[in-house]
Amino acid sequence: MEGKETREEMEKSGMIDTWMRKHRLIYTGATKHPFILSIRDGTVDFEAFKTWLGQDYIFVRAFAPFVASVLIKAWKESDDSSEMEVILSSMASLNDEIAWFKSEAAKWGVQLSEVVPQKANQDYCRFLESLMSPDVEYTVAITAFWAIEAVYQASFALCLEDGSKTPAKLREACRRWGNDGFGQYCNSLQKIANRHLGKTPDDVLTKAEVTLLRVLEHEVEFWNMSHGAA
């Protein structure tokens, strides 16, 4: 009975918020990474930014089929058609995002065709592919989807806050993910995830929490790779 009451208490505030409090350290590591702080403080090594640019282009190309797989799971498992519309909006924006990476790479002299995925990127893309399996529940996949988007939103929004010294030529990149509209989209994903987490069996709930933690770990490793950290 005590365990049930604990879960009921968590559901009142939303499972995502509960997990964010529980795993605050790793979440902070993902959203306030030294690479992001260096952008905000104006001390970023532009070679590190160029590394991130090329590697994230590769990641986005792997992210697109993952989002498509979440859409299929929503079609099969969700009883709310509005959820598909939120996911569809993400798929529509990914085409524009890939075009942005190509344009930005040209500005920075990054030859995308010559970029080789580094280990952290390869590991993250393999993890995404594992979540595309039909055996992975929609609840687990939508939780991962929210986390991936939310980390970028929180990170780049930090670089747009009053008092930030983000270099002018990086502000457009920060606005892509740090703007209010993207924040509202992330809130929509969080509401969807919370809705399904609130009614899922305990074993799936555990899988979703573990998956969330793995996303955050991969995000930290991705920033480490860009920052040149070991």
From TrEMBL:
<dbReference type="InterPro" id="IPR016084">
    <property type="entry name" value="Haem_Oase-like_multi-hlx"/>
</dbReference>
<protein>
    <recommendedName>
        <fullName>aminopyrimidine aminohydrolase</fullName>
        <ecNumber>3.5.99.2</ecNumber>
    </recommendedName>
</protein>
<dbReference type="GO" id="GO:0009228">
    <property type="term" value="P:thiamine biosynthetic process"/>
</dbReference>
<dbReference type="GO" id="GO:0050334">
    <property type="term" value="F:thiaminase activity"/>
</dbReference>
<feature type="domain" description="Thiaminase-2/PQQC">
    <location>
        <begin position="21"/>
        <end position="226"/>
    </location>
</feature>
<dbReference type="InterPro" id="IPR004305">
    <property type="entry name" value="Thiaminase-2/PQQC"/>
</dbReference>
<comment type="similarity">
    <text>Belongs to the thiaminase-2 family.</text>
</comment>
<dbReference type="InterPro" id="IPR050967">
    <property type="entry name" value="Thiamine_Salvage_TenA"/>
</dbReference>
<keyword id="KW-0784">Thiamine biosynthesis</keyword>
<keyword id="KW-0378">Hydrolase</keyword>
<dbReference type="Pfam" id="PF03070">
    <property type="entry name" value="TENA_THI-4"/>
</dbReference>
<comment type="pathway">
    <text>Cofactor biosynthesis; thiamine diphosphate biosynthesis.</text>
</comment>
<dbReference type="GO" id="GO:0005829">
    <property type="term" value="C:cytosol"/>
</dbReference>
<keyword id="KW-1015">Disulfide bond</keyword>
